[in-house]
Structure formats: C-alpha cells, structure tokens
Amino acid sequence: MPLDRSATIGPIRIEVIEPLRTIRYVVDSNEQKISCDLTFRATTAAIEEPRQQRRTAEGIVLTDHTRLTQWGSWEGTISVDGDELAVEAGSVPGTRDRSWGIRPVGEQLPMVRQPMPFQVFWLWAPLHFGDRFTHYAFHEHEDGRRWLETAEILDPLPDGASPWSRVGVRECYDIGYELDWAPGRREIRRAHLWFTDPVEGETHIELETLYTFRMRGIGYWHPHWGHGSNHGQYEIGRESIPLADFNPTDFASLHLQNVVKATMGDRTGIGVVEQIALGPHTPSGLTGFLDGYQG
Fold first, then answer.
1. What SS3 state is found at 248?
2. Residue 269 domain-assigned?
3. Which residues on neighbouring strands pair with residue 15, listed in sequence order?
C-alpha cells in the first residue's frame, strides 16, 4: 500500500467523491476478466462500533480494533468474463464497512508463551427495512458469556446533517438471539433476533437465509490470498470455485456472510448476517473446533 491512499493499485482504485457520503470503487479491465465501476451513496450516518479487544490469559493482545458501518445504496456495473450486470441506482440496498486496528492475521511475531485456544463466536447483522435500518453484533465466549454486544436502530440521515454525527441513531439494549443451524454445518438457516428499542420497546426480527457468500473470496483465511500476506508489489490472481464444491467445515470456508430476508413487525427488508463459529459454543450445541452442528 503506497503512502498516497488515492493511488491506483494495479487495476483497482477508490475515489472519495464526498467523504462519508459518496464513494466510487473501480476495477479496470484486466487479464482476470473481472471488473466493475460501482458507486456507494450513503443513506445513514456512519457509526463506529464498540472497540473489540481481547487478550490472552497472560495479557497479550490478540485483537484490538473497531469498525465503521454505514447503510446506503449501490449503482453501476459489474463484469465477469464479458457478462455485464447492471446495478440500477436506488434499487440495490447495501452497506459498507471499514475496520482498523490489530487482528491475529498475517505474519505473527514469535512468542515463547503457549497461545490460548482459538475460539470465536461472532454474529454481525446490518439490515435494511426501507425507511429504517438496524445493526446487531456480538462476540461470545465458549460458555456464552458475551464480551461485546451492540444493537442500534438508525433513521435516514436528514438533509444537512453530518454523516459522522449520531443524528438518527439510537442505542438499544436487552439483546438476544435464537439460531437455527444447518445440520452438519456451522452456518444458519434462520435466526430470531430481539432487543429493546428505547422509543418503540421490545423489537423482534426474523431472518431467513437466501444464499451464502464465503469470505475467503475477499481474502479472509484464504490459504494463499490471506490478509497480511506479502505477494510483492502488484500480484493479481483469480480463483473460481462452484459454491456446491466448498467443504462447509473447512477452516477457510467457515467465515461467511448470509444474505437474508428480514422481517420486523410489518416491515420486510434485506441484509446480511456475518458468522464466525470456531471452537465449541455451549449455547449453540457446537463442539470441537470445526465440527458441524449435530442437533
């Protein structure tokens, strides 16, 4: 990454047209035959999630990061192998997020101490309901003790309001969930989320998985393209795998985002549920490190 963050990296460039409001992502034509010209237009304020900090029993920092999340819409084009998909303005809701800080990825510093057992239970769900947006995220230990949680409701950003303000954002509490796991997998079919809205009271959301995106497709835990790995200045590659060919309990396939249909009262919406479930999690009935759900 050059010091000038506005520089072109191979065929890729990002243009900040209006900070925290309009951002353009471009992948120019290249030998991998994947390109795009997409623009994100913000609908809500950009929120900063709670700081995620976890240490070993000896006090060594494993993770210390935070994340910006923002709801909006996408428009432009995507091209794969000459087939072009039009993303029509105003018709494709979505989110963007950007995290920064320390994570256990890439080349690690050597340690004399024995590392702690690696256990993660993570759920992250930004959802769109037309004129209402919700956010939901938590981390839990093996026994279900929660070491991070947040739930928020957002309204569209009013004209003239700052996108880095808390205008139209309210914190919720009494956060809970029920998950319906796919047999033999560590991924959900359906979910029931709830929290208490300080304005409208107890709120329930039902989620149904439409399809699943495996995050190794953008580098997470990929055996070659993993984050923090050095491939020289401008190495470019492509990997195409039929979705049915993924081993659902392979380590590199367990970090995923489910595109979901969401129902909240009389509102119907769409969003994603991001999941990481590594190691045992007693409340869910998950055992072992990678073992699929057995019911």
1. coil
2. yes
3. 24
Evaluate whether residue 111 is within a structural domain. no
Q: Measuring CA to CA, which residue among 295, 268, 290 is closest to residue 278? A: 290
On whether both 201 and 77 belong to a single domain, the answer is no
> Between 269 and 55, where is the model more confident?
269
pLDDT, residue 1, reads 62
Name the 3-class secondary structure at 189: strand
Domain end position, chosen among 51, 74, 103: 103
Burial 65-80 (b: 16+ CB within 10 A, else e): eebebbbbbbbbebee
How is residue 115 written in tokens?
A: 């590392």
Radius of gyration for the alpha carbons in the chain, expressed in angstroms and rounded: 20
| pTM passes above 0.70 | yes
Residue range(s) defining the domain that contains residue 200: 117-233+241-295
Mean pLDDT score across all residues of the chain: 92
For the ranges 111-115, 156-160, 171-175, which has the lowest average pLDDT? 111-115
- Helix (H) / strand (E) containing 55: strand 52-55
Domain assignment present for residue 181? The answer is: yes
